[in-house]
Design a protein that fits this description.
The chain is mainly β. The chain is built from no helices and eight strands. The chain has one domain. Strand 1 and strand 2 form a beta hairpin. The chain is globular, with a radius of gyration of 12 Å.
């Protein structure tokens, strides 16, 4: 998957990278978008307001960044593989 850090919906992207889902460790910086580069599946996230939600695979097409802000990608409830995020 080719990843281009440019502009996403008018927001400046400062960095991007792959993440390992964890039920306890937050991302170093709040993510502004999420992509699945491996196997399609659900992604469980903690939103900036602290609530958790499971994003269905239909909303995260493989190979495309989708603007879902998140502070953590949870291991429990995540079935997608090779998850990437963009940071502002």
């Amino acid at each position: 998957m080719r990843i281009f850090a440019a502009k996403l919906l008018g927001s400046n992207v400062s960095d991007f990278g792959s993440v390992t889902p964890s039920n306890t460790v937050n991302l170093t910086t709040q993510a502004i978008s999420i992509a699945v580069a491996g196997t399609a599946g659900t992604v469980s996230v903690v939103k900036p307001d602290g609530t958790s939600v499971i994003i269905p695979s239909a909303l995260l097409p493989v190979g495309q960044f989708v603007p879902f802000p998140a502070t953590r990608i949870n291991a429990t409830g995540t079935t997608a593989t090779e998850i990437w995020v963009m940071y502002q």
